Amino acid sequence: MCTLEKRGSIFFLTLIGADKKDQEHRLNPSLIAAIRAALSEVRSQAVPGSALITQAEGRFFSNGFDLRHAQAVAASSTAASAAVVELISMVSLFRGVVSDLLSLPMPTVAAVTGHAAAAGLILAMSHDYVVMTKSRAVLYLSELDIGMSLPDYFTALIKGKVGSSAARRELALRAAKIGAEAAVRMGIVDAAYDSIEEVAAAAVQTAKELGKKEWSGEAYAEIRKSLYPDVCGLLGLEEKTVFPSKL
Question: Which residues form a coiled coil (predicted)?
């Protein structure tokens, strides 16, 4: 599932797997609930100077929605559409994770040291900053290859985060498997590094530099939401005005 650890002012949310099969960190109802519980804990402990790093063990950051889980639900049901219904449910549940990250009152960094596919890519892109390894990870929006349309909030997030229409086309309409250096050029990733250790160090350095500012978490979250109005609107995140506490 996932673990949450706090070191100084930095929270570390780590996707873990009990065995090799779980190392893909596929987003099923249990993992989604665990991530949301961790983010709720982070939110409850947030103070000026806090930051979040999300990382994952193994070869995958996350391989997207757990289609095997949906198939297993279908196998135990008499309804022909049970797998589709379960996938729709996961799409709906995952909205909460994206909403939590976009409204979290602190800077967030995704340390991508394994493949990030489909909803797993959206999980990474829901962070403020993304750092990635060059040698052992690709970004892959696989929906076109599996014959699935994009959920509306996926599309809105991609449009808000990826400024180039050519890059969005490569990502969504070619289902390209994008390495770290290409992802930097496309504006999906902020920086690429040779090793897992360098990615981890860069994520910590970014979190520390941002945390030193000790910004108001409430102001940070509201400014973030204002930058991505389309996806925040679809997620039901309302903007509010924040004034300096010293007025």
Answer: none
